[in-house]
Amino acid sequence: MNGFLYVALGGAIGASLRHGAGLAAVRLGLSGWPWATFFVNLLGSLLMGLLIGFLAFRGEALGGGQGTRLFLATGLLGGFTTFSAFSLEIAQFVQKDEWTRAIAYAGLSVLLGLALVLAGMIIMRKVLA
């Protein structure tokens, strides 16, 4: 199968899951903070760390080679997480002159996202090494 098809299929699933997270946040009445985007980006960071850590130690066990990697990392997790919505939400805070929220959201998202990628990689290293 063409690499673009793997990415497209994974991306469709990931974007659908992200949409579901947005609907869940609305149904739960979560407001005042972009909870859905915050959640999916942090969860996606952890999952990416776990995936990369797994691939580093047991990539051959995954099967499917490059197609599986394209489906999971680029497609599924790329479609699930969202930099554009994250950027828009920061811009909206700035436009409302809510600088503290903008800085907190940007800083927490980046720092926690990085920490979760690293945590996922460390977890896989400890579990699989």
TrEMBL record:
Na(+) binds at residues 78, 81. One of its GO terms (biological process) is cellular detoxification of fluoride. It catalyses: fluoride(in) = fluoride(out). InterPro entries: FluC. The chain crosses the membrane at residues 36-57, 69-90, 102-124. It is found in: Cell membrane. The keyword Cell cycle does not apply. It is a multi-pass membrane protein. GO terms for molecular function: fluoride channel activity; metal ion binding. Na(+) is not transported, but it plays an essential structural role and its presence is essential for fluoride channel function. Its main location: membrane. Keywords: Cell inner membrane, Cell membrane, Ion channel, Ion transport, Membrane, Metal-binding, Sodium, Transmembrane, Transmembrane helix, Transport. It comes from the Bacteria. GO terms for cellular component: plasma membrane. Pfam families: CRCB. Belongs to the fluoride channel Fluc/FEX (TC 1.A.43) family. Fluoride-specific ion channel. Important for reducing fluoride concentration in the cell, thus reducing its toxicity. This is Fluoride-specific ion channel FluC. It comes from Henriciella mobilis. The gene is fluC.
